[in-house]
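Workshop exercise sheet. Pairs work together: one partner reads the sequence aloud, the other fills in the structure field after running the prediction. Swap roles for the next sheet.
Pair: D.N. / O.F.
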Amino acid sequence: MPDVATLSRADVLCDLDHLPYPFRDSSFDRLQVVHVIEHVAEVIRSIEEVHRPVRAGGEVIIVTPHYTDFNSFCDPTHRWHLNSFSLRYFGDNHGGFGYYSAARFEELSVRLKLLALWRWLGFERAVNA
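Structure field:
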């Protein structure tokens, strides 16, 4: 799906379902994928493509709505509904299912942002402890 946000301030606009992305291998120290992965046609291939332009030891930050958040289902452009364990597929132990991809990430942290009521009641702090 091409970036159709006409007010985007992005440096590069590209169709994230058209691979490869227009970046050289190992050309970034840090890459942020914020509210993107839930929109792509193929999560595994897209994560592999996010992995490719980041140098060894670089950092990738991925933000996506948790499947339990009503925002995950309210946006009709969301194709996928992920959770805090979904990306462990790309970790060292492959989440037990990593045989479809060779891309590997080291998970440094996972943070959940809960709805205001649950934050107010202290659940967010407890979940992220």
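Discussion prompt: The mean pLDDT is 86. What would you look at next?
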